Amino acid sequence: MSNTPVNNDRRRFLTAATSVVGGVGVVGAAVPFIASWNPSAKAKAAGADIEVDISKINPGQLLRVEWRSKPVWIVRRTPELLASLAKNDDMLRDPNSEEDQQPEFARNEYRSLKEEYLVLVGICTHLGCSPQHLKDGAFAAHTEGVNDGFFCPCHGSKFDMAGRVFQGVPAPLNLVVPPYYYIDDNTLLIGSEEGAA
Prior knowledge:
The chain has three helices and nine strands; from the N terminus they run ααβββαββββββ. The chain is α+β, with helices and mostly antiparallel strands.
C-alpha cells in the first residue's frame, strides 16, 4: 500500500477533463445521427414537400423550382393578365377545369388559391415535353389575340395563363396544378394541402 497523499485537485481536474471529452464525443456522435433523420436529396426528389420563397417574384415573372423531379412553375400574374383570362374561355377545351388536373381549391377561373400566383407542373399533358412561357405579345404568334401563354414546341400544344389547354391541339388536358398552400404571405409549401394529414 502506498503512503503517497491523494491530490484531490488533480483528481477533480482529471474527472472534469474526462467528463468534457466524453461530452464532446457524445455530441460529435449525436450530430450525424440526428442529421441522418432528415430526408435525403433522393427522398426529397421522390416526393418530399418543398418550401418556396415567392417574395422576390416580380409581376409577370415566372420562377422555376423542382418537386418530385418535375419542373414546377410559379407565375406572378399582373392585374391586366388576370382580367384577360375570361376572354379565352370560348377557345379552351376545359375552361371550367372540370377534368381532375388540380386540387379542389383550384377549380376556379384562375386555377389557384390566390389570383395573383399561378402554380403549375411544367409538363405538357400530351407527351411530357416542357412548354415555353411566352409573354409580352410573343404568344400571339401562336394564338391570335392572346398575348401571354405557354407553348409546347414539340407538337404545338398551347395553354393560357391559367394552364388551361386550347382547343385543336394535341394536349388533351389542362396543365396539372400540384397540391400546395401558403405558409405565410411570402412562402409556398408545394406537395401538401393545408390541413392534410
